[in-house]
Structure formats: C-alpha cells, structure tokens
Amino acid sequence: MLLQEKINDEGDESVNIRLLVPSKVIGCLIGKNGSIINDMRKRTKADIRISRGEKPKCVSSNDELVEVYQSILYMHSCLYVSCNQ
C-alpha cells in the first residue's frame, strides 16, 4: 500500500490493484456459486473481478488475474479482508 500511495496521482480517489492468483486456488476466492467473492464485495464495497480480459505476457497460463477497484480510503480494509478469508 505504501508503494501504491507513491504511484497514485495526488488527486486520485480510487486505486486499481491487480493480483495474480494460481488457477488451482481461484475457487477458494470465488467460493461455491460465488459466495466468498460476493461476501468480500459486500463487506469491502470493492469491485473485485476475476479478469476475463487479456493477461500480461509475463503471466503463467496457470495464473488468473484478479483486479480490485476501490477508494483509496478503504483499500487497506479491502486487502485485509481478502487476505484473511
């Protein structure tokens, strides 16, 4: 988060974090019928997406790209909830 604060422009109110998640554990993030990811969205008010778009070239075919869009003010709690599920 400290690095993100240095990257963002001073006027930015939101932040976009891109995370690589191994495909074999992406189900743990999604949950049955999307229950876990939907709960994280509700609790954090973040827009969390498993990217269907083009992945960066350096990404392994065994990784999924997860994007989190959130207000800078709430990003710490969003990442904390996501990492402690």
Summarize, please:
With 85 residues, the protein is α+β, with helices and mostly antiparallel strands. It is built from 4 helices and 3 strands.
Widest β-sheet, arrangement of strands: 1-3-2
Largest sheet: 3 strands, antiparallel
**Percentage beta strand:** 25-35%
Number of helices: 4
CATH superfamily, called what?
A: K Homology domain, type 1
Low-confidence residue ranges:
none
Give an account of the 3D structure.
There is one protein chain. This protein has 85 residues and is α+β, with helices and mostly antiparallel strands. The protein has a single domain, classed as Ribosomal Protein S8, Chain: A, domain 1 (2-Layer Sandwich). Helices cover 39% and strands 26% of the residues. It has a three-stranded antiparallel β-sheet. The protein is flat and about 35 Å long.
Descriptive keywords:
85 residues, three-stranded antiparallel β-sheet, flat, Ribosomal Protein S8, Chain: A, domain 1
List the helices and strands and how they pair.
Elements: H1 2-7, E1 14-22, H2 26-30, H3 35-44, E2 47-50, E3 63-71, H4 72-83
Antiparallel strand pairs: 1-3, 2-3
